[in-house]
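Writing this down once: the sequence line spells out the residues, with the fold written below as integer tokens. This is how one looks:
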Amino acid sequence: MSSTARNPAAPASADARARPARSRSRVGTWSDHHVYSLVASFGRMVRKPWSTALTIGVMAVALALPLGLWAALSNIERFAGDVQQARQVSVFLRTDVAVDDAGALAERLRARDDVAAVEHRTPEQGLAELRDTGGLGDTLSGLDGNPLPSLLIVTPTGDEGLLAETLSELPEAEIVQHDAAWRERLDGWLRFGGRLAWVLAAMLGFGALLVVGNTVRLDIQQRTEEIGVLQLLGATDGFIRRPFLYLGLSYGLVAGALALALLTAADLSLRAPLAELARSYGSDFALRGFGLQHAAAIILGAGLLGWIGAGLVTGHYLRQTRPTDT
């Protein structure tokens, strides 16, 4: 009895050991097929260099255009935000306000919560600056006195329009200058440009998706017999679809990297003349490209676009050719 009681336990323990082995075998086969599909997709691209270059080039240009527009708008918006003169309010005091009184008024304004900084320019400083930069040295030297008033240049912390209205009510103020119209127009153009970038991204992204889909469709047509044999042998749609998905992913990843290379080349070609132009206006503004996170997101997004395009085309083909049970 003891021997018969022990014998059924032996097959049970063997089955218990076999189940993890079979599970590991399935996982290993699945991962091996993924690796093989990825490597094979690059091999197919290398074997068709001209077709691959055309597909990747079209995708890269389609991706680079909206990305370049978005980068340009980001730099313009950053430049507009860096130029503090865009928000400064100039307060010309009455000519009868003494310099000491103007300085005391500047101190009172600095204590306000809605004021970030106040620069006080005396009439003498204004006259010297006008001689140096205005080209009116000979004309101004003939004046008996200094007709310029004290000037307060106020940088707001919040709404510059509201601050300008408040400063215009000061009894010492003669003229308050604040041109917000151009900034509002600039903001409107930036919003329009951002919307245009999204529209172009959608249209050109759809075009890139079609390019990948058409390339994968041609590859499917060349492997019709192979796919038919796999279907007859009982291969699942996922097994058949997987190499084409990695093919689309490979196209997208390489196209995304090429798009970044094109934008980097454009950035390098424009950086020097733009820096020289900015220095002529007394600014140290320089173009800012894509960071590592943005670059990684662009490449991964392009790969996802290629994956989706390949998946749509392959899924449509498999739904049409899948054998039906009769």
Observations:
- The longest strand covers residues 115-121.
- Confidence is low (pLDDT under 50) at residues 1-6, 8-12.
- The radius of gyration is 35 Å.
